[in-house]
Known about the structure:
Layout: H1 2-21, E1 29-33, E2 36-40, H2 42-97, H3 101-110, H4 118-131, H5 135-148, H6 153-166, H7 170-183, H8 188-201, H9 204-217, H10 222-238, H11 244-252, H12 256-259, H13 262-274, H14 280-292, H15 296-304, H16 310-318, H17 321-324, H18 328-340, H19 344-357, H20 361-373, H21 378-396
Antiparallel strand pairs: 1-2
Amino acid sequence: MGKFIIKLLILIILVLGAVLLVRDDPGVVMLRYRGWTIDTSLAVALAAVVIIAVAIFYLFRFLRGIWRMPSAMQRQSQNRRHAKARRQLNQGLIDLAEGRFEQAENHFMRLVHLSDSPLVHYLSAARAAQLQGKHDARDSYLKAAHEANPEAELAIGVTQAELQLAHLQTEQALATLSHLHSIAPRHDYVTMLLARAYFELEDWTALVEILPDVRRKKLLKEKRLHEMELAGYCGALGRSTSSQESLEKAWRGIPKSLQSDPVMMRFYLDMLTQQHWHSSSAEQMLLKSLENQWDDSLIEVYGRLEARDANAQLARAEKWLDDFGHNQNLLLALGRIAMRARLWGKAQGYLEASIGAKATPAACLALAELFEQQLQQPDKAARYYQQGLKLSLAAGR
């Protein structure tokens, strides 16, 4: 409407301009055709030309509109169908958000053939089917989504992997994600989901290979990433115990920031003590960590760590008595080290002091073994075995 008014004003201005132009000298225009003759003033002739031009213009527009009417009606009908499909999609999304999964699935699929974005309908229907436990229907919708839009392989694959992980189909999810990773190796979300699949399948070797990329891109929250790093690198260490050399090589492959973690350090030292291996560098690392920050779990490991010189190890540990003399873990560690140094009386004193500070199954077991194997006092050994067993049972309740 606004454009029409503007055009009308321009036309009026032109006509008025023409009238003013010929006001003093109206002039004469003569048209002769065969026996017909028309005489008129210049102003009237100009006005007639303008009116005829406007009439011809709108006549052509009218004819063009008639010519285009079938396609316009077709587009209008198509737009109405698309609008209906969008309304179904919107209602389905509302139902999905409100937990009406069956209704949501029905809305998504009702007019999918009329939609201009069938991919969204199929992917949403797959999620609704998953939430109902209809996994065959879910897979059918995902297949239909791929057929409707093969170029959206990545979006469909990511949705499929998410749903498979949610349904604990971790091996199938890993296969899906491995394929996606091969075609989009730098896709952050695929990398994050792949790390999750490795973690849940306890594939520690593959997990530790991808974790540096996850950390560099900050794809996970720090707490979750740290949890996965601990599990992954501890798992990798646990599979490297064929020789001390392979274990130490695996340890050197762990990021420096993680090596200082007490849980990580304790696991590594546990591997050494279980195999009765000695590592001077590991012992120094443990001592440095304890000097920087006391940790009861690490002092307990230090008590089981077999040093080359048990007497020197005992002397180092006894320096902590001034600061942590009543700590049951330190006293237990001192008792164990004294036993390896064959100082039976000192070992007995430390172990009894540890039990006095706080009785633990580990301290009772160590003292019972001392009485039984070295001091030849089976009655006392039996008493401490019994006490340790009671403590273990109580802790398991």
